[in-house]
Amino acid sequence: MHDFSEPHTPTEAPATGLDPSAQPGAVERGAATRQALLDTAERLFAEHGYGATSLRRITAAADANLAAVHYHFGSKQDLFVALFRRRVEPVNRQRVERLERLIAASAPQAPPLEDVLDVLVRPMLALRDEPGGEHFVRLVGRLFAEPGDHLTALREEFDEVRSKFLPVLAAQLPHLDREQLALRMQFTIGSLANVLAQAHRSNGPTCFPPFTTTPERVADELVAYAAAGLRAPVRRTPPDAPAAPNDTEPLQ
Amino acid sequence: MHDFSEPHTPTEAPATGLDPSAQPGAVERGAATRQALLDTAERLFAEHGYGATSLRRITAAADANLAAVHYHFGSKQDLFVALFRRRVEPVNRQRVERLERLIAASAPQAPPLEDVLDVLVRPMLALRDEPGGEHFVRLVGRLFAEPGDHLTALREEFDEVRSKFLPVLAAQLPHLDREQLALRMQFTIGSLANVLAQAHRSNGPTCFPPFTTTPERVADELVAYAAAGLRAPVRRTPPDAPAAPNDTEPLQ
DNA sequence: GTCTATAACATGATAGAC
DNA sequence: GTCTATCATGTTATAGAC
Question: Residues in domain HTH tetR-type (chains A, B) (predicted)?
Answer without folding.
Answer: 31-91
